[in-house]
Amino acid sequence: MNTHVVDHPLAAVLLTTMRDARSDNAIFRGALRRLTHMLVYEAMREAPVATFDVVTPVAVANGVRLAQPPLLVPVLRAGLGMVEQASSLIPQARVGFVGMARDEETHRPVPYLESLPEDLSGMPVFVLDPMLATGGSMVYTIDLLVARGATDVTAVCVVAAPEGVAALQESGHPVRLVTAAVDEGLNEDAFIVPGLGDAGDRQFGPR
Ligand code: PRP
């Protein structure tokens, strides 16, 4: 599996704001929005384009458009804070939704929403979730996508634990990871260390 860590000073500054426990909900959401811009920008670097002639006020120039805009799939709740920025970068993108919450005891994902196009064959998919902890939520989401024919999935995350990266690798799914950081690991509550806390709670308040 290909893991791309977006290593850029502007991304590192925004990640610092998100890590900082003093950042309130509004500041956290703003930093997530801006960091999503950078992550999606990097995730689109190899996106195929189709060319066409565009007429400038002076002459004809080579123009491009995206050949295949990805389907964006925010994983609720925390991924909601990424979707508006991703859509504004890729206005042609369709959006699907998956909702799940981790069981606090078992740390396994409990799904409660699935709203996806039936047929994803030939369609790149970007899964948006700020956190890849055990990887259970991401692997569950990619299972759903692959069952619909997806063969080209990108997980766009803010922080990942090595355990989550390994889970993605072991899933055998066609996935690559774009993230701002791979952290040290998980604690006994399956929280990423040092991480940024619970990205859902930090955007929207506790459930
Ligand atoms: C968090 C996070 C991921 C998941 C990661 O969501 O946003 O979806 O946990 O953990 P995993 O890799 O171990 O599955 P949470 O369950 O807290 O729900 P929320 O987004 O509604 O806050």
Give the helix/strand layout.
Elements: E1 2-5, H1 9-19, H2 25-43, E2 49-55, E3 60-66, E4 71-76, H3 80-89, E5 97-102, E6 109-115, E7 125-128, E8 131-132, H4 136-147, E9 153-156, E10 159-160, H5 162-171, E11 175-179, E12 181-182, E13 185-186, E14 192-193, H6 199-204
Parallel strand pairs: 1-11, 4-5, 4-7, 7-9, 8-10, 9-11, 10-12
Antiparallel strand pairs: 2-3, 5-6, 13-14
Helix pairs in contact: 1-2, 2-3
The structure holds 1-O-pyrophosphono-5-O-phosphono-alpha-D-ribofuranose.
Would you give an account of this structure?
With 207 residues, the protein is α/β, with parallel strands linked by helices. The protein has one domain: 3-Layer(aba) Sandwich (Rossmann fold), CATH 3.40.50.2020. Helix 3 links the parallel strand 4 and strand 5. Helix 1 packs antiparallel against helix 2 and helix 2 crosses helix 3. Bound molecules: 1-O-pyrophosphono-5-O-phosphono-alpha-D-ribofuranose. 1-O-pyrophosphono-5-O-phosphono-alpha-D-ribofuranose (PRP) binds next to strand 5, strand 8, helix 4 and helix 6.
